[in-house]
Amino acid sequence: MSVRKLGYVGLNVRDIATVKTIFGRVLGMQARPGGDGTISYRMDARHHRFTFVPGNSDSLAYVGWETDSLEALQRLAETIGRQGHAVRPATAQEKAERAVLDMFWFDGPDGVRTEIAFGGIEDAEPFAPARTISGFRTEEQGLGHVVLGSADADATVKFYRDSLGFSVSDYIHWDVCRATFLHCNARHHSLAVMNPVYGTAAGQLNHVMVQANAMDDVGRAYDIVRDLGIPVVLTLGKHSNDHMTSFYIQTPGGWAIEYGHGAREIDNDWDVKYYDSPRLWGHHLQSPAVPPR
Ligand SMILES: [Fe+2]
Asked: How confident is the model over 102-129, as pLDDT tens digits?
């Protein structure tokens, strides 16, 4: 039994104003204000995929993975429960807030609130981007990818493989970083697990990646962050493993956003590899406080 894609992500943020600038003006996502100052962002046909809760901390609130059926959701809940995790069904309010048909959650590795859902609402209204873009590569590949810090990365990788059905795409070890990349659909990786380095604590988000349908969308965003003075963590470059051409935007919460285009995809003949560098070219580190890849 396996999850099939990354569905949504929630974050607690202190500086909501900068988040709004990045997700709206830079990435072109559509803001959906909620109650209590919460703001969600839409990037495709789904009701929303990102939710930001303003407050006194910067932290990962939850990661939402999706199954491809209600039956698979139920079976996964039973499997995870049998493995000793306290599985909690979503309340009606939680399902409404996530905009899903059904969901359960449990405390995953490193205390990450791990939610498993099915049936993200497809909105009847068309996606209305905040700037003119070609859109994002989502659908059966999900939102994009998340990279998480872990105190025991080997055990965490084992959990995602054995309990949630991920497969390893490849490994990159460079500098002080040890990262394992995992897929659950054709996207090269929907998840990567790294040791807690480069300022990313265990259980926290190193970065989230969203993939543009056109390279020009990425190039224009690169111009916009330059014009607005928003810090870039990694300059434009190309990754060794997924071949994504991307750059990384710094957020005030310490995590980054990778915005890229052109990644290669997993196929039936996928060959798991080991690299000693995350980059083919570019991706030069701009801010020592924050993390590559
Ligand atoms: Fe990435």
From this structure: 999 999 999 999 999 999 999 999 999 9
CATH number at residue 169: 3.10.180.10
Identify the weakest region by mean pLDDT among 107-111, 136-140, 289-293.
Answer: 289-293
| Percent of the chain predicted with pLDDT > 90 | 96
126 inside domain: no
How many whole angstroms from 27 Cα to the centroid of ligand 1?
16
Tell me the CA–centroid distance for residue 89 and ligand 1, in Å: 31
Distance, in Å, from the CA atom of 37 to the CA atom of 203, rounded to the nearest integer, reads 25
CA of 146 to the centre of ligand 1 (A): 7
Q: Does residue 134 fall inside a structural domain?
A: no
End-to-end, the C-alpha distance of the chain in Å comes to: 29
Is the same domain home to 165 and 195?
Answer: yes
Return residues with CB closer than 5 A to ligand 1 (ion): 209, 258
- Asked if 169 and 220 sit in the same domain, the reply is yes
**292 in a structural domain:** no
How many domains does one find in the chain?
2
What range does the domain containing 202 cover?
Answer: 139-282
Q: Starting from the edge strand earliest in sequence, which strands make up the sheet with 113-118, in order?
A: 30-33, 39-42, 50-54, 5-13, 59-66, 113-118, 102-107, 88-89
For ligand 1, the distance from its centroid to the CA atom of residue 220, given in whole angstroms, is 19
Distance in Å, CA 260 to ligand 1 centroid: 9
